[in-house]
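thread: overnight batch results

M.L. [08:02]
morning all. the overnight job finished for the chain we discussed friday. pasting input first so we're all looking at the same thing
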Amino acid sequence: MDDFLIDVVNKKGVAVWAAINEKDEERLVEYATSSELMNRNNGVILGRAIRSLMHGDMIIGSLIIRTNERFFSNIYRNIDIGSGSDIFVMDNKGIVVSSRNPKIPVAEVYRDKKFIEEVKRRYDQGNTVFDYNIDGDDCLIAFSHLEKADWFVISTIPYSYINSESKKTSLNIFVLAIVFFVLAVFLSNIYYTHVTSPLTKLVSVMNEVRKGDLSITMEEVGTDEISEVIKHFNIMLNDINRLLQDIKVKEKQKRKAELKALQAQINPHFLSNTLNTIKWLANVQKAENIESIITSLIQLLHSSMGKGGDYVSVREEIEYIKHYINIQEYRYFNKFKVLFEIEDCVMDCMIPKFLLQPVIENALIHGIEPMEGQGVIVVKAFAYEDTMKITITDNGVGIPEDKLDILNQKPKTGSRSYFSGMGIRNVHERIVMNYGEPYGLQIQSVPNLYTTVEITLPINKTGGVD
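M.L. [08:03]
and the structure it wrote out:
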């Protein structure tokens, strides 16, 4: 302890720290107080020389303050840095200043002098962490230097603890890996059962359907999205099967209708052949009127049987009209005459077949026949802007205003066959059905003066709908 007092004096007012234990207490009594009052505990003393105010370099006394070491050790006593680990404070001479471990006594030089030298050497190198073997155990040493007191706070951690933690961590990771593996297998099984397997079956069924097997279906299991897809797939297959059955039925009906149509053509062809025979006989017997009317009838009959397609040129339609008029002239005995004013630019325009015949027939029956004297029908065809106009005017009895309003209304009924009482309403329906609403038929009439039917068509020189 004398060394401590000498050191205090030599420091000339600089604080000096030192550790003491009960072995030093008796020696300090005369300088401090009784050892009984010190409770026989380890302590830390602070000494400082007192200089004269009059003579600055003269030392006139010393101040010594003692405190219990437990106030220092309590700071880090409950710090847990691992099983077998320890923390203590050591001064630059290797004397333990504070310790929570009874095996490292306070106020004594640390038992391993090589350890003290190693700490100092590492400090000089600036390395505060190193490995060291303490009592046969490899330990990790970490320390920190307290500049003002020139102390070292040292911690020792056995590698056995560090390795045990890593082993524990490895074990935990292994257990977690097994848990996640089992969970992954479980989830994969669920995914396969509820998603992959149904989708695989659905693809297989689709391949069978693509090959032509429409009788196959899939069982609906569950209420998830995949089951909903399977449900709609089954509905789709049922709809396809139903549509195919409808198509088969309609095809059978179509074949029956075609057969009936073929059978129906036998009579017109037979009638045409018979009329040709009558025409030959009339020619032989010089009956020119009979030959003329039969010739016109044969031409109209050929047209009605579909010869030449659904569209004809204006030129061909006028020829059909002339044959029709030739037949009607024998019936009405020069009751009427027909005049044609057709511009050359529209002669080759295509129009639906038998478009004008119903209009002329209507003019004969309802306009010319009831009147007295001879009637006149004027047929005109000309180009107007980007359309073609065809007008049929007669000087017959005309149409009453109330009936004319009805005729000029847009029809809602479907068309009928050409030679089954069809009228001008049917002509309008055919035009609208082929070309659309901008085109059609319009009637103007003044009773007992005239009736004009105006037909508006697109200029079409190719046939069909542009």
